[in-house]
Amino acid sequence: MSSAVLDKLKAGVRKFQTEIYPGHEEKYILAASTPQRPSALIIACADSRIDVETITSSMPGELFVTRNIGNLVPAYGEMLGGVSAVVEYAVSALGVQHIVVCGHSDCGAMKGLLNPEAVARMPTVENWLKNGHAALSVANALAVKDEKQSDLMRRLTEQNVLLQLQHLRTHPSVAGAMAKDELTISGWVYDIGSGGVRICEEGNKAFVPVVSAGAGAGGATA
Fold it and tell me: What pTM value is reported for the model?
């Protein structure tokens, strides 16, 4: 079997050790010598094109991150497992102050919801995507005649993020922390091609673009 992929990964490690680590050595040493205290949990898609640390310009120790197909958060008690454990640990043990559910453009999970036959031969994936079925129902209900597939995908992606925020609120740790004003949540949609991020903040269903400094007023801030 070819070792080309492993060799490329090793080359990446060497580049990190010689070019990246030296410039941030003090931050890495501090991260290794003190208990982690991330300020936020980000629940993102497992898509290989998504890198939340890069998108948010974050360093080690600043974010607690979990990723899965479709950035889904099962409602509490529905599918207790990895995601539920991450949420509980992040809130109860680490005391994160904010949770982000981050969706993205061209999401394969959203395509799977729209075209279930594409995942029919992957029973585990098919079952996992049930956590997004309500979002699909809403997206279809809001569809207009002769709508473009791209518009439906965009709406489904947004509705899925909103649905997962609803699911997130069913988790006891989240509900308790929010009741004490110790935790806030938001939904994001990241556009891979443009680098743009649109954010739906707590209490709002509109996704507002984050704008760079000097780009004008009206954009959301992270």
Answer: 0.90
